[in-house]
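User: Predict the complex.
Assistant: Input components as received:
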Amino acid sequence: MALELLIPISLILVLLLLSIKLALFPTKTSDKLPPCPRKLPFIGNLHQIGLLPHQSLHKLSKKHGPLMLLQLGQVPTLVVSSSQMAKEILKTHDLIFASRPKVNVADIMLYGSQNMAFSPYGEHWRQMRKIAVTNLLSMKRVQSLHGTMEEQVAHMLSKISDASSSVSPINLSKILFSFTNGMLFRAILGRSFDEEDENKMKFHEMMEETAVLLGGFNVEDYFPSLGWLCSLFGLDDRAKRTSSKWDCVLDQMIEDHVNMNKKGEGEDDDFVDVLLSIQGDPNKEFFLSKDHMKALLLDMLFGGTETGYVTLEWSLAELIRNPKVMKKLQDEVRGKAFGKSMVKQNDLSDMNYLKAFLKEILRLHPPAPLLVPRESMESCRIQGYDIPKKTRVIVNYWAITRDQKIWDSPEELRPERFENNPIDFKGQHNYEYIPFGAGRRMCPAVHYGVTITELALANLVHRFDWKLPDGMVIEDFDMTETHALTVKMKSNLLLVAKPYF
Ligand code: HEM
Protein backbone atom coordinates (compact mmCIF):
# COMPACT_ATOMS: atom_id res chain seq x y z
CA MET A 1 0.00 0.00 0.00
CA ALA A 2 1.28 3.45 -0.82
CA LEU A 3 2.70 5.34 2.18
CA GLU A 4 0.37 8.30 1.56
CA LEU A 5 -2.62 6.01 2.18
CA LEU A 6 -1.10 4.07 5.04
CA ILE A 7 -0.75 7.13 7.29
CA PRO A 8 -4.35 8.43 7.12
CA ILE A 9 -5.80 4.90 7.31
CA SER A 10 -3.80 4.02 10.43
CA LEU A 11 -4.73 7.35 11.96
CA ILE A 12 -8.44 6.75 11.36
CA LEU A 13 -8.15 3.22 12.80
CA VAL A 14 -6.52 4.46 15.99
CA LEU A 15 -9.09 7.23 16.39
CA LEU A 16 -11.88 4.71 15.92
CA LEU A 17 -10.47 2.27 18.49
CA LEU A 18 -9.93 5.02 21.04
CA SER A 19 -13.45 6.39 20.54
CA ILE A 20 -14.93 2.89 21.05
CA LYS A 21 -12.82 2.43 24.21
CA LEU A 22 -13.96 5.78 25.59
CA ALA A 23 -17.61 5.10 24.75
CA LEU A 24 -17.56 1.62 26.34
CA PHE A 25 -15.39 2.39 29.38
CA PRO A 26 -15.87 6.01 30.35
CA THR A 27 -13.66 7.11 33.27
CA LYS A 28 -15.67 7.01 36.47
CA THR A 29 -15.20 9.63 39.13
CA SER A 30 -17.03 10.58 42.30
CA ASP A 31 -15.55 14.08 42.18
CA LYS A 32 -17.77 17.09 41.62
CA LEU A 33 -16.15 18.55 38.53
CA PRO A 34 -16.76 22.02 37.04
CA PRO A 35 -19.25 22.17 34.16
CA CYS A 36 -18.08 20.98 30.76
CA PRO A 37 -19.62 21.93 27.41
CA ARG A 38 -20.83 18.99 25.30
CA LYS A 39 -17.85 17.05 23.99
CA LEU A 40 -17.22 14.83 21.00
CA PRO A 41 -15.75 11.33 21.23
CA PHE A 42 -11.94 11.27 21.18
CA ILE A 43 -11.29 14.97 20.62
CA GLY A 44 -13.50 16.16 23.50
CA ASN A 45 -13.83 19.95 23.24
CA LEU A 46 -10.86 20.57 20.96
CA HIS A 47 -13.13 21.54 18.08
CA GLN A 48 -14.46 24.46 20.16
CA ILE A 49 -11.07 26.17 20.52
CA GLY A 50 -10.98 27.89 17.13
CA LEU A 51 -8.29 30.15 15.66
CA LEU A 52 -8.68 32.82 18.35
CA PRO A 53 -8.94 30.74 21.54
CA HIS A 54 -9.33 33.74 23.89
CA GLN A 55 -12.50 34.72 22.03
CA SER A 56 -14.01 31.25 21.62
CA LEU A 57 -13.32 30.35 25.26
CA HIS A 58 -14.89 33.65 26.33
CA LYS A 59 -18.03 32.79 24.36
CA LEU A 60 -18.17 29.31 25.94
CA SER A 61 -17.75 30.77 29.42
CA LYS A 62 -20.77 33.04 28.92
CA LYS A 63 -22.83 29.88 28.62
CA HIS A 64 -21.06 27.53 31.04
CA GLY A 65 -19.67 29.86 33.69
CA PRO A 66 -16.32 31.22 34.91
CA LEU A 67 -14.97 27.76 35.81
CA MET A 68 -15.22 25.18 33.03
CA LEU A 69 -13.43 21.88 32.79
CA LEU A 70 -12.88 21.19 29.10
CA GLN A 71 -11.59 17.91 27.78
CA LEU A 72 -8.99 18.87 25.19
CA GLY A 73 -8.14 15.55 23.59
CA GLN A 74 -6.72 13.54 26.49
CA VAL A 75 -5.99 16.59 28.65
CA PRO A 76 -8.46 17.94 31.23
CA THR A 77 -8.21 21.72 31.05
CA LEU A 78 -9.68 24.15 33.54
CA VAL A 79 -10.69 27.44 31.94
CA VAL A 80 -10.94 30.40 34.30
CA SER A 81 -12.87 33.43 33.07
CA SER A 82 -13.62 35.79 35.96
CA SER A 83 -11.47 37.94 38.23
CA GLN A 84 -12.83 36.14 41.29
CA MET A 85 -11.80 32.72 39.93
CA ALA A 86 -8.45 34.11 38.71
CA LYS A 87 -7.79 35.19 42.31
CA GLU A 88 -8.51 31.62 43.49
CA ILE A 89 -5.87 30.26 41.08
CA LEU A 90 -3.24 33.01 41.23
CA LYS A 91 -3.50 33.93 44.91
CA THR A 92 -5.45 31.54 47.17
CA HIS A 93 -4.02 28.39 45.55
CA ASP A 94 -0.96 29.98 43.89
CA LEU A 95 1.47 27.26 44.97
CA ILE A 96 -0.73 24.41 43.72
CA PHE A 97 -1.01 26.09 40.31
CA ALA A 98 2.59 27.30 40.04
CA SER A 99 3.73 24.63 37.60
CA ARG A 100 3.62 24.55 33.80
CA PRO A 101 2.33 21.66 31.68
CA LYS A 102 4.70 19.69 29.48
CA VAL A 103 4.79 21.16 25.98
CA ASN A 104 6.33 18.94 23.34
CA VAL A 105 7.66 21.77 21.14
CA ALA A 106 9.17 23.55 24.16
CA ASP A 107 11.00 20.34 25.07
CA ILE A 108 12.54 20.32 21.59
CA MET A 109 13.29 24.03 21.29
CA LEU A 110 14.23 24.90 24.86
CA TYR A 111 16.70 22.16 25.70
CA GLY A 112 14.17 19.91 27.47
CA SER A 113 12.20 22.94 28.78
CA GLN A 114 15.20 23.93 30.89
CA ASN A 115 14.36 27.60 30.49
CA MET A 116 12.28 29.55 32.99
CA ALA A 117 8.93 30.04 31.26
CA PHE A 118 8.18 26.38 30.44
CA SER A 119 10.04 24.79 33.33
CA PRO A 120 7.96 22.86 35.89
CA TYR A 121 7.84 24.43 39.36
CA GLY A 122 10.89 23.49 41.45
CA GLU A 123 14.51 24.29 42.25
CA HIS A 124 15.67 24.57 38.62
CA TRP A 125 12.93 27.10 37.80
CA ARG A 126 13.71 29.04 40.99
CA GLN A 127 17.41 29.31 40.11
CA MET A 128 16.77 30.34 36.49
CA ARG A 129 14.34 33.03 37.61
CA LYS A 130 16.76 34.30 40.25
CA ILE A 131 19.58 34.60 37.69
CA ALA A 132 17.40 36.51 35.18
CA VAL A 133 15.82 38.82 37.73
CA THR A 134 19.04 39.66 39.57
CA ASN A 135 21.18 40.22 36.50
CA LEU A 136 18.88 41.63 33.84
CA LEU A 137 15.37 42.46 34.97
CA SER A 138 15.67 44.03 38.43
CA MET A 139 14.75 47.70 38.81
CA LYS A 140 18.44 48.55 39.35
CA ARG A 141 19.57 46.71 36.19
CA VAL A 142 16.78 48.27 34.14
CA GLN A 143 17.81 51.73 35.41
CA SER A 144 21.36 51.04 34.27
CA LEU A 145 19.93 50.38 30.79
CA HIS A 146 18.21 53.79 30.50
CA GLY A 147 20.98 55.27 28.34
CA THR A 148 20.95 52.23 26.01
CA MET A 149 17.17 52.42 25.75
CA GLU A 150 17.38 56.08 24.71
CA GLU A 151 20.01 55.24 22.08
CA GLN A 152 17.85 52.47 20.65
CA VAL A 153 14.78 54.73 20.55
CA ALA A 154 16.83 57.45 18.78
CA HIS A 155 17.91 54.83 16.22
CA MET A 156 14.27 53.83 15.61
CA LEU A 157 13.20 57.49 15.24
CA SER A 158 15.89 58.15 12.67
CA LYS A 159 14.80 55.08 10.67
CA ILE A 160 11.21 56.37 10.66
CA SER A 161 12.42 59.84 9.75
CA ASP A 162 14.34 58.47 6.74
CA ALA A 163 11.38 56.36 5.65
CA SER A 164 8.97 59.29 6.01
CA SER A 165 10.45 61.05 2.98
CA SER A 166 9.34 58.19 0.71
CA VAL A 167 5.94 58.29 -0.99
CA SER A 168 4.99 54.82 0.26
CA PRO A 169 3.61 54.25 3.75
CA ILE A 170 6.01 52.95 6.40
CA ASN A 171 5.91 49.31 7.48
CA LEU A 172 5.87 49.99 11.19
CA SER A 173 5.51 46.33 12.15
CA LYS A 174 8.98 45.73 10.76
CA ILE A 175 10.54 48.77 12.39
CA LEU A 176 8.93 48.09 15.79
CA PHE A 177 10.07 44.46 15.68
CA SER A 178 13.69 45.50 14.96
CA PHE A 179 13.49 48.01 17.77
CA THR A 180 12.33 45.64 20.56
CA ASN A 181 14.56 42.85 19.30
CA GLY A 182 17.53 45.21 18.94
CA MET A 183 17.06 46.53 22.47
CA LEU A 184 17.08 43.02 23.91
CA PHE A 185 20.20 42.16 21.91
CA ARG A 186 21.94 45.21 23.35
CA ALA A 187 20.94 44.27 26.89
CA ILE A 188 21.89 40.63 26.46
CA LEU A 189 24.90 40.80 24.16
CA GLY A 190 26.18 44.28 24.78
CA ARG A 191 26.26 44.98 21.08
CA SER A 192 23.90 46.39 18.49
CA PHE A 193 21.79 44.38 16.19
CA ASP A 194 21.49 46.00 12.79
CA GLU A 195 20.01 45.41 9.35
CA GLU A 196 23.05 43.40 8.32
CA ASP A 197 22.43 40.96 11.18
CA GLU A 198 18.75 40.77 10.27
CA ASN A 199 19.52 40.04 6.61
CA LYS A 200 22.10 37.44 7.53
CA MET A 201 20.23 35.67 10.27
CA LYS A 202 16.59 36.28 9.28
CA PHE A 203 15.65 36.81 12.94
CA HIS A 204 12.19 38.10 12.10
CA GLU A 205 11.35 34.91 10.20
CA MET A 206 12.88 32.73 12.91
CA MET A 207 10.97 34.56 15.62
CA GLU A 208 7.67 34.27 13.74
CA GLU A 209 8.14 30.54 13.18
CA THR A 210 9.06 30.12 16.86
CA ALA A 211 5.96 32.05 17.94
CA VAL A 212 3.72 29.82 15.84
CA LEU A 213 5.39 26.65 17.13
CA LEU A 214 5.48 27.60 20.82
CA GLY A 215 2.21 29.51 21.00
CA GLY A 216 -0.09 27.33 18.93
CA PHE A 217 -2.67 24.87 20.21
CA ASN A 218 -0.63 21.93 18.94
CA VAL A 219 -2.61 18.71 18.63
CA GLU A 220 0.22 16.50 19.98
CA ASP A 221 0.17 18.27 23.35
CA TYR A 222 -3.40 17.11 23.79
CA PHE A 223 -2.70 13.46 22.98
CA PRO A 224 0.38 12.74 25.08
CA SER A 225 0.01 8.97 24.75
CA LEU A 226 0.17 9.29 20.96
CA GLY A 227 3.61 10.86 20.67
CA TRP A 228 4.03 9.43 17.19
CA LEU A 229 1.30 11.81 15.98
CA CYS A 230 3.93 14.52 16.16
CA SER A 231 5.98 13.03 13.39
CA LEU A 232 2.84 12.52 11.26
CA PHE A 233 2.03 16.23 11.39
CA GLY A 234 5.66 17.16 10.75
CA LEU A 235 5.72 19.46 13.77
CA ASP A 236 8.67 17.70 15.38
CA ASP A 237 10.76 18.30 12.28
CA ARG A 238 9.76 21.97 12.03
CA ALA A 239 10.65 22.50 15.68
CA LYS A 240 13.97 20.70 15.28
CA ARG A 241 14.87 22.76 12.19
CA THR A 242 14.10 26.09 13.89
CA SER A 243 15.77 24.97 17.08
CA SER A 244 19.00 24.07 15.29
CA LYS A 245 19.08 27.56 13.70
CA TRP A 246 18.73 29.19 17.13
CA ASP A 247 21.33 26.83 18.55
CA CYS A 248 23.90 27.96 15.94
CA VAL A 249 23.16 31.64 16.65
CA LEU A 250 23.47 31.15 20.42
CA ASP A 251 26.66 29.09 20.14
CA GLN A 252 28.18 31.88 18.05
CA MET A 253 27.12 34.56 20.55
CA ILE A 254 28.62 32.67 23.48
CA GLU A 255 31.81 31.85 21.59
CA ASP A 256 32.27 35.52 20.58
CA HIS A 257 31.98 36.50 24.25
CA VAL A 258 34.44 33.85 25.40
CA ASN A 259 36.95 34.99 22.75
CA MET A 260 36.53 38.68 23.56
CA ASN A 261 36.93 38.01 27.26
CA LYS A 262 40.11 36.01 26.57
CA LYS A 263 41.53 38.96 24.67
CA GLY A 264 40.36 41.30 27.44
CA GLU A 265 38.12 43.16 24.97
CA GLY A 266 34.72 42.45 26.55
CA GLU A 267 33.03 45.18 28.58
CA ASP A 268 31.99 42.50 31.07
CA ASP A 269 28.59 43.81 31.94
CA ASP A 270 26.14 42.29 29.51
CA PHE A 271 23.91 39.32 30.33
CA VAL A 272 25.99 36.72 28.47
CA ASP A 273 29.08 37.83 30.43
CA VAL A 274 27.20 37.48 33.68
CA LEU A 275 26.02 33.99 32.70
CA LEU A 276 29.58 33.00 31.78
CA SER A 277 30.88 34.23 35.11
CA ILE A 278 28.19 32.28 37.00
CA GLN A 279 29.15 29.21 34.98
CA GLY A 280 32.83 29.62 35.80
CA ASP A 281 32.29 30.20 39.53
CA PRO A 282 33.19 26.97 41.41
CA ASN A 283 31.50 28.26 44.61
CA LYS A 284 28.04 28.48 43.06
CA GLU A 285 25.76 25.75 44.41
CA PHE A 286 23.80 25.68 41.11
CA PHE A 287 25.53 24.31 38.03
CA LEU A 288 24.63 26.44 35.01
CA SER A 289 25.31 24.31 31.94
CA LYS A 290 25.70 25.72 28.43
CA ASP A 291 22.21 24.41 27.57
CA HIS A 292 20.77 26.21 30.62
CA MET A 293 22.42 29.42 29.41
CA LYS A 294 21.03 29.04 25.92
CA ALA A 295 17.55 28.22 27.23
CA LEU A 296 17.56 31.34 29.43
CA LEU A 297 18.78 33.55 26.56
CA LEU A 298 15.92 32.27 24.42
CA ASP A 299 13.47 33.05 27.25
CA MET A 300 14.56 36.66 27.23
CA LEU A 301 14.42 36.93 23.42
CA PHE A 302 11.10 35.12 23.00
CA GLY A 303 9.50 36.67 26.11
CA GLY A 304 10.56 40.21 25.33
CA THR A 305 10.48 40.72 21.58
CA GLU A 306 6.91 39.84 20.63
CA THR A 307 5.23 41.30 23.72
CA GLY A 308 7.00 44.63 23.25
CA TYR A 309 6.47 45.23 19.58
CA VAL A 310 2.91 43.95 19.62
CA THR A 311 2.05 46.44 22.40
CA LEU A 312 3.52 49.31 20.37
CA GLU A 313 1.73 48.14 17.22
CA TRP A 314 -1.70 48.04 18.95
CA SER A 315 -0.95 51.41 20.56
CA LEU A 316 -0.37 53.18 17.24
CA ALA A 317 -3.30 51.39 15.61
CA GLU A 318 -5.67 52.53 18.38
CA LEU A 319 -4.30 56.09 18.30
CA ILE A 320 -4.96 56.32 14.57
CA ARG A 321 -8.54 55.12 15.10
CA ASN A 322 -9.07 57.52 18.03
CA PRO A 323 -7.86 61.00 17.01
CA LYS A 324 -9.09 62.62 20.26
CA VAL A 325 -6.96 60.26 22.33
CA MET A 326 -4.00 60.88 19.97
CA LYS A 327 -4.37 64.64 20.44
CA LYS A 328 -4.64 64.42 24.23
CA LEU A 329 -1.55 62.19 24.35
CA GLN A 330 0.45 64.41 21.99
CA ASP A 331 -0.55 67.52 23.95
CA GLU A 332 0.70 65.96 27.17
CA VAL A 333 3.99 64.62 25.75
CA ARG A 334 4.78 67.70 23.62
CA GLY A 335 3.88 69.99 26.51
CA LYS A 336 6.06 68.22 29.07
CA ALA A 337 8.97 67.70 26.68
CA PHE A 338 8.64 71.15 25.09
CA GLY A 339 11.75 72.23 23.17
CA LYS A 340 13.46 68.82 23.47
CA SER A 341 14.36 66.81 20.40
CA MET A 342 13.74 63.61 22.33
CA VAL A 343 11.78 62.52 25.38
CA LYS A 344 14.15 61.06 27.97
CA GLN A 345 13.42 58.57 30.76
CA ASN A 346 13.32 61.23 33.46
CA ASP A 347 10.66 63.20 31.52
CA LEU A 348 8.21 60.29 31.80
CA SER A 349 7.49 60.36 35.52
CA ASP A 350 4.68 62.94 35.34
CA MET A 351 3.20 61.90 31.99
CA ASN A 352 0.06 60.50 33.60
CA TYR A 353 -2.04 60.23 30.45
CA LEU A 354 0.73 58.27 28.70
CA LYS A 355 0.80 55.81 31.61
CA ALA A 356 -3.00 55.53 31.63
CA PHE A 357 -2.99 54.98 27.85
CA LEU A 358 -0.47 52.13 28.07
CA LYS A 359 -2.49 50.48 30.83
CA GLU A 360 -5.60 50.74 28.67
CA ILE A 361 -3.79 49.16 25.68
CA LEU A 362 -2.71 46.24 27.88
CA ARG A 363 -6.36 45.84 28.89
CA LEU A 364 -7.86 46.14 25.42
CA HIS A 365 -5.10 44.22 23.57
CA PRO A 366 -3.19 42.10 26.06
CA PRO A 367 -0.27 40.44 24.19
CA ALA A 368 -0.84 37.25 26.24
CA PRO A 369 -4.64 37.13 26.66
CA LEU A 370 -4.55 33.58 28.08
CA LEU A 371 -1.41 34.33 30.17
CA VAL A 372 0.84 31.21 30.03
CA PRO A 373 -0.81 27.85 30.90
CA ARG A 374 -0.40 26.47 34.41
CA GLU A 375 -0.76 22.94 35.77
CA SER A 376 -2.03 21.82 39.18
CA MET A 377 0.54 19.97 41.28
CA GLU A 378 -2.08 18.68 43.76
CA SER A 379 -5.82 18.18 43.71
CA CYS A 380 -7.84 20.96 45.34
CA ARG A 381 -11.35 22.41 45.72
CA ILE A 382 -12.45 25.67 44.17
CA GLN A 383 -15.95 27.04 44.73
CA GLY A 384 -17.14 23.56 45.69
CA TYR A 385 -15.67 21.93 42.59
CA ASP A 386 -12.92 19.30 42.71
CA ILE A 387 -9.90 20.09 40.54
CA PRO A 388 -7.81 16.96 40.00
CA LYS A 389 -4.01 16.88 40.17
CA LYS A 390 -2.26 17.52 36.82
CA THR A 391 -5.13 19.55 35.39
CA ARG A 392 -4.00 22.10 32.82
CA VAL A 393 -5.21 25.62 33.65
CA ILE A 394 -5.90 28.49 31.29
CA VAL A 395 -6.69 31.87 32.84
CA ASN A 396 -8.61 33.80 30.19
CA TYR A 397 -7.55 37.32 31.11
CA TRP A 398 -9.17 38.55 27.89
CA ALA A 399 -12.59 37.44 29.19
CA ILE A 400 -11.94 39.45 32.38
CA THR A 401 -11.07 42.55 30.34
CA ARG A 402 -14.49 42.30 28.61
CA ASP A 403 -16.47 41.86 31.84
CA GLN A 404 -19.12 44.58 31.94
CA LYS A 405 -19.48 44.22 35.70
CA ILE A 406 -15.90 45.47 36.04
CA TRP A 407 -15.33 47.72 33.03
CA ASP A 408 -17.70 50.33 31.71
CA SER A 409 -18.05 49.92 27.88
CA PRO A 410 -15.22 47.35 27.86
CA GLU A 411 -14.81 47.39 24.05
CA GLU A 412 -14.02 51.11 23.99
CA LEU A 413 -10.57 52.70 24.25
CA ARG A 414 -10.84 54.92 27.34
CA PRO A 415 -7.45 55.67 28.95
CA GLU A 416 -9.32 57.93 31.40
CA ARG A 417 -10.50 54.86 33.30
CA PHE A 418 -6.92 54.47 34.58
CA GLU A 419 -6.41 58.13 35.48
CA ASN A 420 -6.57 58.73 39.25
CA ASN A 421 -6.96 54.96 39.65
CA PRO A 422 -4.60 53.15 42.06
CA ILE A 423 -4.67 49.93 40.03
CA ASP A 424 -1.16 48.82 39.04
CA PHE A 425 0.48 46.00 37.07
CA LYS A 426 0.99 43.76 40.10
CA GLY A 427 -2.45 42.24 39.74
CA GLN A 428 -3.05 42.41 43.47
CA HIS A 429 -6.14 44.59 43.43
CA ASN A 430 -9.06 42.31 42.63
CA TYR A 431 -7.32 40.35 39.87
CA GLU A 432 -9.29 42.27 37.25
CA TYR A 433 -6.11 43.76 35.74
CA ILE A 434 -3.41 41.13 35.19
CA PRO A 435 -1.74 41.67 31.75
CA PHE A 436 1.53 40.30 33.24
CA GLY A 437 -0.16 37.47 35.15
CA ALA A 438 0.15 37.23 38.93
CA GLY A 439 1.59 35.11 41.71
CA ARG A 440 4.80 33.08 41.65
CA ARG A 441 4.87 32.72 37.85
CA MET A 442 4.04 36.37 37.11
CA CYS A 443 6.11 37.94 34.33
CA PRO A 444 9.51 38.81 35.81
CA ALA A 445 10.01 41.67 33.32
CA VAL A 446 7.20 44.10 34.18
CA HIS A 447 9.61 46.91 34.94
CA TYR A 448 11.69 46.36 31.79
CA GLY A 449 8.56 45.97 29.60
CA VAL A 450 6.77 49.08 30.89
CA THR A 451 9.89 51.30 30.88
CA ILE A 452 10.89 50.58 27.28
CA THR A 453 7.33 50.74 25.95
CA GLU A 454 6.53 54.08 27.61
CA LEU A 455 9.76 55.61 26.32
CA ALA A 456 9.21 54.40 22.75
CA LEU A 457 5.57 55.43 22.69
CA ALA A 458 6.22 58.92 24.09
CA ASN A 459 8.84 59.52 21.39
CA LEU A 460 6.73 58.15 18.55
CA VAL A 461 3.95 60.64 19.29
CA HIS A 462 6.33 63.49 20.21
CA ARG A 463 8.36 63.36 17.04
CA PHE A 464 5.74 62.52 14.38
CA ASP A 465 2.19 63.19 13.32
CA TRP A 466 0.61 59.98 12.07
CA LYS A 467 -1.81 59.45 9.19
CA LEU A 468 -3.46 56.60 7.34
CA PRO A 469 -2.01 55.88 3.88
CA ASP A 470 -3.53 58.05 1.12
CA GLY A 471 -6.96 56.85 0.01
CA MET A 472 -7.55 54.76 3.15
CA VAL A 473 -10.34 55.59 5.59
CA ILE A 474 -10.68 54.47 9.21
CA GLU A 475 -13.38 51.96 8.24
CA ASP A 476 -10.83 50.13 6.01
CA PHE A 477 -8.31 49.83 8.81
CA ASP A 478 -7.79 46.16 9.58
CA MET A 479 -7.78 45.35 13.31
CA THR A 480 -8.11 41.58 12.79
CA GLU A 481 -6.16 39.56 15.34
CA THR A 482 -3.98 36.52 14.84
CA HIS A 483 -2.91 34.14 17.59
CA ALA A 484 0.58 32.67 18.09
CA LEU A 485 2.86 33.21 21.09
CA THR A 486 1.09 36.57 21.41
CA VAL A 487 -2.08 37.98 19.89
CA LYS A 488 -1.08 40.53 17.29
CA MET A 489 -2.44 42.36 14.26
CA LYS A 490 -2.95 40.03 11.32
CA SER A 491 -1.87 42.62 8.75
CA ASN A 492 1.28 44.69 8.90
CA LEU A 493 0.77 48.15 10.34
CA LEU A 494 1.30 50.61 7.46
CA LEU A 495 1.14 54.33 8.31
CA VAL A 496 2.40 57.66 7.04
CA ALA A 497 4.65 59.66 9.40
CA LYS A 498 5.06 63.42 9.17
CA PRO A 499 7.94 64.82 11.25
CA TYR A 500 6.56 67.37 13.76
CA PHE A 501 9.82 69.31 13.94
C1 HEM B 1 4.42 44.21 27.50
C2 HEM B 1 5.29 43.32 27.85
C3 HEM B 1 5.01 41.97 28.47
C4 HEM B 1 3.82 41.35 28.78
C5 HEM B 1 2.41 41.90 28.61
C6 HEM B 1 4.15 40.05 29.35
C7 HEM B 1 3.22 39.13 29.79
C8 HEM B 1 3.54 37.92 30.42
C9 HEM B 1 2.58 36.99 30.98
C10 HEM B 1 1.07 37.18 30.95
C11 HEM B 1 3.26 35.95 31.52
C12 HEM B 1 2.66 34.72 32.21
C13 HEM B 1 2.48 35.00 33.69
C14 HEM B 1 1.74 33.94 34.47
O1 HEM B 1 1.82 32.74 34.17
O2 HEM B 1 1.04 34.34 35.43
C15 HEM B 1 4.67 36.21 31.30
C16 HEM B 1 5.68 35.37 31.72
C17 HEM B 1 7.01 35.57 31.39
N1 HEM B 1 7.55 36.65 30.74
FE1 HEM B 1 6.57 38.32 30.16
N2 HEM B 1 5.52 39.90 29.35
C18 HEM B 1 6.08 41.05 28.83
C19 HEM B 1 7.43 41.30 28.67
C20 HEM B 1 8.45 40.40 28.92
C21 HEM B 1 9.84 40.65 28.67
C22 HEM B 1 10.41 41.98 28.15
C23 HEM B 1 10.52 39.51 29.03
C24 HEM B 1 12.00 39.22 29.00
C25 HEM B 1 12.94 40.07 28.72
C26 HEM B 1 9.53 38.56 29.51
C27 HEM B 1 9.83 37.28 29.97
C28 HEM B 1 8.90 36.44 30.57
C29 HEM B 1 9.26 35.15 31.17
C30 HEM B 1 10.65 34.53 31.21
C31 HEM B 1 8.07 34.61 31.69
C32 HEM B 1 7.90 33.28 32.43
C33 HEM B 1 7.96 33.48 33.96
C34 HEM B 1 7.88 32.18 34.74
O3 HEM B 1 7.36 31.19 34.23
O4 HEM B 1 8.37 32.17 35.89
N3 HEM B 1 8.29 39.13 29.42
N4 HEM B 1 4.82 37.41 30.64
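Residues 156 and 179 are 6 Å apart (CA to CA).
Let me know if you want any component modeled separately.
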